[in-house]
Design a protein that fits this description.
The complex is a heterodimer of chains A (294) and B (247). With 294 residues, chain A is mainly alpha-helical. Chain A has a domain of 169 residues. Chain A has eleven helices and two strands. In chain A, strands 1-2 form a two-stranded antiparallel sheet. In chain A, helix 1 runs antiparallel to helix 8. The longest helix of chain A is centred in the first third of the chain and has 33 residues. Chain A is globular, with a radius of gyration of 19 Å. Helix content of chain B is 41%, strand content 25%. The longest helix of chain B is centred in the last third of the chain and has 18 residues. Chain B has 247 residues and is α/β, with parallel strands linked by helices. The chains are: A mainly alpha (294), B alpha/beta (247). Chains A and B meet through helix 6 and helix 7 of A and helix 2, helix 3, helix 4 and helix 7 of B.
Amino acid sequence: MDFSQQLSQYLLSGLATGAIYALIGLGFAIIYNSTGIINFAQGEFVMLGGMFGVYFYTVHQFPLVAALLLAVLCAAASGVAFERLAIRPMRRAPPLGLVIITIGGSILVRGIAMLVWGKDTHALPGFSGDEPIILSGATLLPQHLWIFALTVLLIIANKLFFQYTITGKALRACAVNQRAAGLVGIDVRRMVMFSFLLASGMGALAGIIVAPLTMTSYDVGIMLGLKGFCAAIIGGMSNGIGTVLGGLLLGVLEALGAGLISSGYKDAVTFIILLLILFLRPQGLFSRGESERV
Amino acid sequence: MLTVKNINTYYGQVHALKNVSLHLKQGEIVTLIGAYGAGKTTILNSLSAVTPVRNGEITFAGEPIQSLAPERIVELGISQVPEGRQVFKPLTVEDNLELGAYLRYRRREGRARIRASLDEIYRLFPRLQERRRQLAGTLSGGEQQMLAIGRALMARPKLLLLDEPSMGLAPLVVQEIFAVIAALTRDYGTTVLLVEQNAKAALKLASRGYVLETGKVILEESSTELLGNKEVQRAYLGKEKKEIWER
């Protein structure tokens, strides 16, 4: 395998993991934009997605689509329950307090998952087999194509939802100005719950489609959550294209770092990038100054 | 159509409204005047249920509304244009207006009817139509005020609560906005409760006024009487009354 082949291999697998990070990051951004809190439990819903996926698909042998839908639904329901039980009762707490609550919540969810499913690593078979496809010298698994297709679909759906539906616009309105949103009759609390539903559902889907590549276990949520957080930070916490680009960039850099330097540095690459962004450009790489009059 | 009886509102320990009573008749423009901190905005927020009253009674169209949620208040036909406009800046002008009709979308009212209201708003404020695709944050102050009023009107309120619509605007723009408010009551029969620092302009527009001081209503008169009242002139109508000011 010559160098250019190697490079395209890194790029492809980097883009695939990057797509996953993008989806998780969008979840962070959606909740941040409607409540102002960073939900560090986001990774746990990714984990729940993967685990419920294994549970329905391999344990109970549901058909693929049904298993996918059920897993996403269950994880999203957990997200809503999390909001109702942990976030809503503490609504008056300052954002930092709420952030700590999400960390506590994530430990709880992880613990429950460990008790229910054990500490083993579980594998989910690829959605359409594991026969590799050779593409200009790089090998690609069918699962990679699933990841690309579903991510693109989800990002487009996300964009359309926030841009064109009244509920999407209402969510954005809550993000900008909760008081004014309440005055036009938007039920802000319902919107907060809805944003948790969206974010956990999206994270869960990411967790399911990545499970055949990386395996899943009760503790994958920490790392995946932090990677998604990093993607959202690179994207300036926008619930749009910025976070998507952030995720892809992160995935590619990570793959290059792991491939060209040492695979031991894979995670270090992420955190170096995270720190650099926070130090040098905390508003994100892609945010442009918005012209605004008061 | 609106009766407020002995309401008391608190911000934590602060007693912001003390036994306030007032009433509005269908199609009236009524103004609240008073210094900063007198409780004008608090009255509007109590009516909108943003800062709920602790006791007392508010009836709107014969129904008690003091314990309803903010969105129910909007649904019943009371919309507020908040102080400082509070438009959704990163959203387009048209999105802002559509969100004004949020509850009508929720009730699955036909798109055609909401569209018709939108066209009506554009007729009232042609400048909003020119800028419909622009982000609300890029509008001038006057245009943002028009947008805030338009957004509230999209809910088709029977009672419009206006909080300081003239704040920070050029006199010509204020005239334009006040003309629209007058047209609203004339053409649509909308009842208006207007809070203004610019007491003189407000009293010229309104038929009646309430004067507030430290959370209490101290005076209720027709606008002409208030404009002629020496106390009111001294306290709220400003320096141009030399004979009083320089005594």
